[in-house]
Every structure is written in structure tokens, then in C-alpha cells.
Amino acid sequence: MFRTTCLSNIKRFPLKRWASTQARPALIAGKTRTWEVIVGLEVHAQINSRSKLFSVTPTSFNEPVNTKYSAFDAAFPGTLPRVNEECILLAVKTILALSGRVQKQSSFERKHYFYPDIPAGYQITQHSNPIGLGGYIELGELDGLPYPLKIGLEQLQLEQDTGKSIHDIQPGASLIDLNRAGTGLMEIVTLPDMRTSLEAGLMVRKLQALLRAVGSSDGNMEEGSMRCDVNVSIHEPGTPFGTRCELKNLGSVKVLMSAIDVEVQRQIEILESGGTVYQETRGYDAVQNQTFKLRSKETAPDYRYMPEPDLPVLQVTDQYIEQAKQQMPELPDVRRSRLIDTYNLSLENCNTLMAEPGIAEYFEQISKKHDPHKTLSWVTSELFGRLSFKGISFSQNPVTQEQLGSIIGGIEEGIISGKIGKSILNLMMDGDSRNALDIAKAKGWQQIEDENALEKLCSELIQKNPEEIQKVKQGNKRVFGWFVGQIMKETKGKANPALVNSILKKHLDY
Ligand code: ADP
Ligand code: MG
């Protein structure tokens, strides 16, 4: 049964400062009729555990082929599965982070496929009695405006990943790499709660951020550690949902969104010309921008599900769930609200700080000692500008939080000017590991605080420019700025600008 999740949640929307709410997109107009789109996702996220789901073989993400598998992973007769507790803990944490229910008892079953990359001929999964039920993800925002839509979840189940078939190395043959075989997956199934490609894209991004924060998966679609199957159907408003097609092998959020859009158009054309949409699994060709049939949809009987006889019921106690709760890191939505409230940040700035792991921690460490707004600008404009100029990500940032803090502190204390601070940051970007004050001292870049010396420079300048003085006295701000600029130029940016200002003001009666 379809469950409505949307607009009643507005009241509970957490970010107080957001002014207005974005409307949910309208229906799609075809040539002759209007359609509502239904999207549901089945996400497979590889579990970030050290070893595989049912064997002690280390998980391998970039190893030479066929170097990381055990007799069990290769389905040798007589080998038996044994649950890896680390996978259970990560799954339990993920369910809690998704506000789902952890089932005290869940069970495993065999789902049969005959593919060369599944050596056993079946996958151990949890189709009918999974470890996690329910839960939701709140989309939160769209283009900086509130979008308080909750996408409901049906379940989270544990299952094995397959090996990989490689078709493009040896002509006429498919090669099998078993490194991935038996790696733990969390399959997260959503309710059919999304209505547009944009909502589906946002949902995937939010889920990725959540999995990364929990540490249960890298959630990387490009590298295949997260794979999303998308179910799409259309119907006329007020009528039952239409027949869905499942889109597979979508390598990025962008591709996923394009595939939904073009599939919706295909279904509209079929239905408007009197045809029938058949339930099938389809691929997406990004070059042609069209979906194509892979196979008709398997139904449950095709899989010949049977209970897994070699694994007992999986029991999770209240105490275990409590322990998992205690170990939970701060989740993205909670962190976003907290950062906005604590530091009075705009949503946009906050999102910048949360764009990559570690940035928010870096910002907060520096902000403990220095002004948060100055820190924000040093991190998001000065530091990020230089990182992007070098084409590196924050994870490769060579400037420690102590170093950047020492620049901001040096400016706060009047020891260096802002301009010198930027030159110091350039040196740090190039690998200088000293703090700002040591660099300034070594380079002779400390700010000139000597009032007598500055007095002298100012009076010389004033004597040489009698005409300009008249303009300042008539209230010309720009010319006053010119005087300040001259002194800064003469001292190579080292004069304390506040001091120069006050000396000039005194001399010019400004
Ligand atoms: P099955 O178990 O047969 O694969 P489910 O009912 O569990 O089918 O649904 C699988 C996925 O398809 C879920 O993500 C769900 O949200 C989605 N879905 C179900 N019905 C529709 C529909 N009419 N249109 C689009 N997606 C749908
Ligand atoms: Mg199902």
C-alpha cells in the first residue's frame, strides 16, 4: 500500500531559520494527458567492514584480481558461513541512523541465480525477514529552500555481494574475479515516495552522506560501492499506480536522474499512444539518452527462495542496540542544525563546511580559539580557493588547523596584516610547516606597530600632497583611502592599518 509522507511534516522541519518552503513540483504534462510519476529505489551499499559478511577473508577494494577469496567465497563443498559481527554492528547503526526499527530476530535465506560470478548458485540474503524495518530520510532542502519531505523506507537487509564478471579482456571469454564475492551489502529499499528525478537524486545524496557519517559504507556510486536500482512508473492523478520498470547499472547521481527523466518520457509516449508498459528491467544508454530492455522482471518464484540451513536466526539484543546507539557519531542533519545555530551560519556556508568529511571539524577546532566568521572566511575563501587552484581536495590539505589558526590569531593580535596572512598561507600551501608567527619573523613580515615610525611616514606624505589634503578636508573618502594605501605601499603591507588610519585621521582632521 502506498503511504503518503509529504506535507504533514513541515511543522517538524528542524532548521528554524529557513524562511519559506519550496513547493513540491507539479505533475508532468504529456501531449494529451497529465501524469504523476512514482519512483522507488533499491540501494545496495557495500559494507565498510574489514572482512566479508560470512568469511574471515579481508574485504578488498583495489587488490589484484582473485587474491582475496576463501574456499567459502568460492563455494567449495563443505565450507560453512559464519556471520561477521562487524557487519551486524554497522548495519544496526545504519538502521538507527535511518530512524528504522532493528528487528530482534531476523533470518537469512538463499536466493537462486545462475551467474558465473555467484559460485554457489545462490546469494545469501534477507528478503522476507530482514534486520531493519521502516525508517525514513528527510530531504530537507532544495536549492537552499526548505523541502521537508520524508522518503519512507521499507527495509534494510543484509546480503552478499557477487564476484565480478569481466567481459572486455579476453575476446570470446568472460573472466571472473572473486575478490568482491561475499562482501557484505546493505540493501536499502525505499517506499515509492518520490515523484521526480530531482527527489530521487536528493535522496541518494542524503543517503550517501548518512552512510559516510555512520561509517558503514563509502557510498560511492562511481566506484560501485553503492549501486542504485530505480523503479519508475506513471499514472493519471487519482488512479492507481502504473506498472513499474526497473532501471539498473546507473553509475552516478546525474546519470540516475537523466535515466528517470527519459524513462518517464518513454512511458508517457507508450500510454498516450494506447500501448502497455510491461514490467521489466532496463538499462540506460547515456550517449543515446535512452533506456533499453535488459530482461523481463524476475518474480519471487524465479528465485526459489529457501531458508538458509547453515545459519541460525540472527538475534540482536536491546543491550546491543543500546551499545550501538552510544557509539553513534553526530549525524548530518543534527550537525547542520547545530553548526547553523552555534556559529550563526547561513545554510549555504554550512553546506560548504559539510561538503567533505573533516572540514566541519577543522572549522570548529579553529573557531574554538578564534572568531568563527573570520575563520569561516579563511577556510571557505582563502584556503578553498588555494586548494581548488591546486586541484586538490580537502583530504589533501597541507595546512594544519594549528597553522591556519596561527594566521587568524596573528591578525587578531595585530602582529601581521591580512595581506601578509595571505602570503603566509601561500607558503604553507607549498609545504612550509611552521606557524604564521615563525614565518613572519623569519621573513621580516611582522606588522609595523611603531607609532613614531608611522607618524614620521604619515607627516612626510602629508607634506608632499597639499592638494590632496584639501580634498580630504572636504570629506572625500576616496582620497583618504589613497593616503592609507600610500603608507601601506611604502611599508610593503606591513604597517598596522588601524594605526595608520588613526594617525592620518588625527593629522587631517578627518
Ligand atoms: P519487489 O519486492 O517485487 O521487488 P517491491 O514492492 O518491494 O517489489 O518494490 C520494489 C521497489 O519498487 C521499491 O523501491 C518500491 O518503492 C518500488 N515500487 C513499488 N511499486 C512501484 C510503482 N508502482 N512505481 C514505482 N516504483 C514502485
Ligand atoms: Mg520488495
From TrEMBL:
Asn/Gln amidotransferase domain: which residues? 361-508
| UniProt keyword Nucleotide-binding, yes or no | yes
Cross-referenced InterPro entries, in alphabetical order? Asn/Gln-tRNA_amidoTrfase_suB/E (IPR017959), Asn/Gln-tRNA_Trfase_suB/E_cat (IPR006075), Asn/Gln_amidotransferase (IPR018027), Asn/Gln_tRNA_amidoTrase-B-like (IPR003789), GatB (IPR004413), GatB_C_1 (IPR042114), GatB_Yqey_C_2 (IPR023168), Gln-tRNA_amidoTrfase_suB_CS (IPR017958)
The Enzyme Commission number assigned here is 6.3.5.-
Q: Which reaction does it catalyse?
A: L-aspartyl-tRNA(Asn) + L-glutamine + ATP + H2O = L-asparaginyl-tRNA(Asn) + L-glutamate + ADP + phosphate + 2 H(+); L-glutamyl-tRNA(Gln) + L-glutamine + ATP + H2O = L-glutaminyl-tRNA(Gln) + L-glutamate + ADP + phosphate + H(+)
Does Transcription appear among the keywords? no
Q: Where in the cell is it found?
A: Mitochondrion
Which keywords does the record carry?
ATP-binding, Ligase, Mitochondrion, Nucleotide-binding, Protein biosynthesis
- Any transmembrane segments, and where? none
Q: Which family does it belong to?
A: Belongs to the GatB/GatE family. GatB subfamily.
Please describe the quaternary structure of this protein.
Heterotrimer of A, B and C subunits.
**Task performed by this protein:** Allows the formation of correctly charged Gln-tRNA(Gln) through the transamidation of misacylated Glu-tRNA(Gln) in the mitochondria. The reaction takes place in the presence of glutamine and ATP through an activated gamma-phospho-Glu-tRNA(Gln). Allows the formation of correctly charged Asn-tRNA(Asn) or Gln-tRNA(Gln) through the transamidation of misacylated Asp-tRNA(Asn) or Glu-tRNA(Gln) in organisms which lack either or both of asparaginyl-tRNA or glutaminyl-tRNA synthetases. The reaction takes place in the presence of glutamine and ATP through an activated phospho-Asp-tRNA(Asn) or phospho-Glu-tRNA(Gln).
Name recorded for this polypeptide: Glutamyl-tRNA(Gln) amidotransferase subunit B, mitochondrial
